[in-house]
Amino acid sequence: MRFYNRLNMKKKINNVQESTLEPLNPSTLEPLKEGWRWVKLGKVCELIMGQSPPGSTYTDKPEGLPFFQGKADFGEYFPTVRVWCTQPIKIAEEGDILISVRAPVGPVNMNNLKCCIGRGLVAIRCKDDAINWSIFWYLRSIEAQISSLGSGSTFGAITRGDLISLQIPLPQIKEQKRIAAKLKELMQEVERARTACEKQLEAAKSLPAAYLREIFESEEAKKWERKRLGEVYEVCQYGLTATATNDKGFPYIRITDIDDLGNINIDGIKFVDCDENTHKKYALEKGDILFARSGSIGRTFLYNEIPPKAIFASYLIRFRLNQMLINPSWLFYYTHSVQYYQFIEEKKHTVSQPNINAEEYKSLSIPLPSLPVQQRIAAELKENMAEVDKLRTSIEKQLEAINVLPQAILRKAFRGEL
Questions:
Q1: To the nearest 10°, the Cα dihedral for 72, 77, 80, 84?
Q2: Phi, psi at 357, each rounded to 5°
Q3: Which of 375-401 are b and which e, b meaning 16 or more Cβ less than 10 Å from the residue's Cβ?
Q4: Averaged pLDDT, 178-202
Q5: What's the Cα-to-Cα distance from 274 to each of 123, 288, 314, 318, 400, rounded to whole Å?
Q6: Which of 334, 349, 368 is at the close of a domain?
Q7: What is the pTM (predicted TM-score) of this model?
């Protein structure tokens, strides 16, 4: 009843099949291209509501019919079989459109086999004057609007009546077929572009590890002297235990502010209001390296005075190095190498609760060429990593642009502009 009140219906609805959906009601529908018309989905399609069979009839063996229960079974276009049912109640046929009607509401897949459907799905079966792929693409284009219809429900669901009354644009059969074929072609092109872009992104992401292998697994590296971290540091200290605030005091670096690449999320930084003596004790200096001792064990951060006047939290360990022996950037890059993570895994398994303390970190063996060599290689790695970041950012922007293409294409198609 709250749903209908929200729609401000002027008259009492006695037949749910005649209900009207606010986001798509006739008074707000756009004019269509000549030869097109707005029709209710229930006029051109049959709707089969899903119903869940008894749990005792489910099986993970291919017995009976494939059983789809909701969005969790959906793929990009077709569902994936995970469960079968030996006593199906409601059946969807090949070519039916499956729409999720319970949390989440709106996603669609095209059914490519005879199956049993649970109550989280409705099968939409097109009649003579509707083409399933044309309807499929339109429903996908308004998924967000359909989803909003279920937002007023406690469990996020829409009814059969909601779907029956859904207004859809319908051209002639010939035009539906043309649009469906064109959309299939365009979506395949988008998918190829997306796949190529994702491969480029994966290749870009693998570059840092390749650069590090080239340095730390080289024949030259085998000849370098090695020292333990405990032999090359000047200060080792656990961080401050304090309650962080949003905007008062000194920047307070926590494990959660540091990502796996050693970058810091400046926007997420919180603050600690402490006195000058406490700040002096825990204030970071340029070249300090922070090691995570629990949680994201092994994660590191090289402090370069950003954010300024920062202090560090208790689950981090600060090492200040003897820079006459070791370049801080050299150590930072080494802490992203395969050898370093092998060390971390070995240490993690020596305690019942995953944790690495300062003494264990001091046992880390570090390759140490001459200081000029460390500085040269660290500078080269910094330059290479910066180029990788630029490349990744560029590819990610391309991928974002590709990901919005389908909706743009669909909007154009159902305005009759394709």
A1: 90
A2: -95, 175
A3: eebbeebeebbeebeebbeebeebeee
A4: 97
A5: 62, 21, 15, 19, 42
A6: 368
A7: 0.77
- Pairing mode, if any, of strands 91-92 and 65-68? unpaired
Q: Considering only 148-157, 174-183, 335-344, 387-396, which range has the smallest mean pLDDT? A: 148-157
**E-strand stretches of 280-368:** 289-292, 300-302, 311-312, 316-321, 365-368
Provide the pairing of β-strand 311-312 with 250-253: parallel
Quick one: pLDDT at residue 353? 64
**Domain that includes residue 111, residue range:** 2-171
Cβ burial, residue 170 (10 Å; 0-12/13-18/19+): buried
Residue written as tokens 């003494």? 359
> Are 153 and 260 in a shared domain?
no
Query: What are the phi and psi torsion angles at 44 (to 5°)?
Result: -115, -5
Hunting for tokens 């050299």 — which residue is that? Answer: 330
Q: CA–CA separation, 280 vs 302, rounded Å?
A: 19
**238: domain CATH number?**
3.90.220.20
Q: What is the pLDDT of residues 334-355, one digit of tens each?
A: 999 999 999 999 887 655 667 8
Q: What span, in angstroms and rounded, lies between the C-alpha atoms of 396 and 38?
A: 39
| Class of residue 154 by CB neighbours under 10 A (exposed 0-12, middle 13-18, buried 19+) | exposed
Picking from 45, 46, 66, the residue whose alpha carbon sits closest to that of residue 57 is 66
* The one-letter amino acid at 54: P
Bridge pairing between strands 105-110 and 83-85: unpaired
Count CB neighbours of 9 within 10 A.
13
Tell whether 398 is covered by a domain.
no
User: 7: pLDDT confidence band, cut at 50, 70 and 90?
Assistant: very low
The confidence score (pLDDT) of residue 347 equals 85
